[in-house]
Amino acid sequence: MKVLIGTNQMGLEQAIPELQQQYPDLTFVYCPERDQIAEMIADAEIYMGWLNREAYLGANSLRWIQSPSSGVNYFLEIPELVESDVLLTSASGTHGPAVAESTMAMILAFTRGIRTAVLHQAQRIWQPRDIRPHMVELTGATMGIVGFGQIGRALAKRAKAFDMRVIAVDLAPRGVAEFTRPPARPRRGPGTTHRHDSSAAADRRDAPTLPRIRDRRSPRA
Predict the structure, then answer these.
(1) Which residues contact 96 (CB under 8 A, 6 or more apart)?
(2) Interatomic CA distance for residues 112 and 175, integer angstroms
(3) What span, in angstroms and rounded, lies between the C-alpha atoms of 41 and 7?
(4) Is residue 196 part of a domain?
(5) What is the H or E stretch that residue 47 is in?
(6) Per-residue model confidence as pLDDT tens for the chain (221 residues)
(7) 8 A C-beta contact, residue 180 and residue 158
(8) Is 194 in contact with 188 (CB distance < 8 Å)?
(9) Rounded to an integer, what distance in angstroms lies between the CA atom of residue 104 and that of residue 97?
(10) Which CATH number characterizes residue 62's domain?
(11) Domain count, the chain
């Protein structure tokens, strides 16, 4: 069985030696160029990467597509794929830590004056007194998170480590994470609004539930 790994920005092909050792009955192949995918996918049964409609139509043996990203909308735009029995799975959840860490890094770039310091460094300027008055501590600050999936929860976990207060909303809440507290009871009375709030998480449990695409098979599968 041939497993083709397409061109990507994550270096997925680096795992081929280890995967080949773990699964000797499979043949792992890497396609480094986009214009070679249509040719190399022709006899592949499993494909990991992005592909267009032209490449898919030439994949005569394809049985499973693994999306490198959490979203699969790009693949669902191929009508022949939607109508087929090919299994499509996403990488939902795998990017949570990376995106959460990048988010915290961007926040710190501004709250700790890192961005300004780097700009000053390029100009050979040393003026810490100009930066310090603009620094902000995250302790006690409030972070709002719209969407409390894998990425949102990973971000909330890191925000809690900075002693931040987190308010999160989600259209399809899946319970409270182990590092959070249940939403506090909303206060009711004149001039108050109905809102679930806590130091770690707040879910909109009365919101409509939207479908979450993780993997799919065609109706015929």
Answers:
(1) 150, 151, 153, 154
(2) 34
(3) 12
(4) no
(5) strand 46-48
(6) 999 999 888 899 999 999 999 999 999 999 999 889 999 999 999 999 999 999 999 999 999 999 998 889 989 999 999 999 999 999 888 889 999 999 999 999 999 999 999 999 999 999 888 888 999 999 999 999 998 988 999 999 999 999 999 999 888 777 666 666 554 454 444 443 333 344 444 443 333 333 443 444 433 33
(7) no
(8) yes
(9) 11
(10) 3.40.50.720
(11) 1
216 membership: H or E segment, kind and range: strand 215-216
Classify residue 220: in a domain, yes or no. Answer: no
pTM of the model: 0.64
Query: Could you write out the DSSP letters of every residue in 123-181?
Result: TT---HHHHGGG----TT-EEEEE--SHHHHHHHHHHHHTT-EEEEE-SS-----TTS-
In a domain, 31, yes or no: yes
Note down the domain range covering 24. Answer: 2-89
Q: Is residue 216 part of a domain?
A: no
* Side chain identity, residue 123: Q
Instruction: Determine the Cα–Cα distance for residues 20 and 25; give it in Å rounded to an integer.
Output: 8
Give the span between the Cα atoms of 111 and 143, in whole angstroms. Answer: 13
Residue 11 structure tokens: 């270096």
Task: Give the C-alpha distances (Å, rounded to integers) separating 34 from 52, 74, 81, 153, 182.
Answer: 10, 16, 19, 34, 47
- Amino acid 120 reads H
d(CA 215, CA 125): 52
- Give which of 40, 34, 89 is closest to 60, Cα–Cα: 40
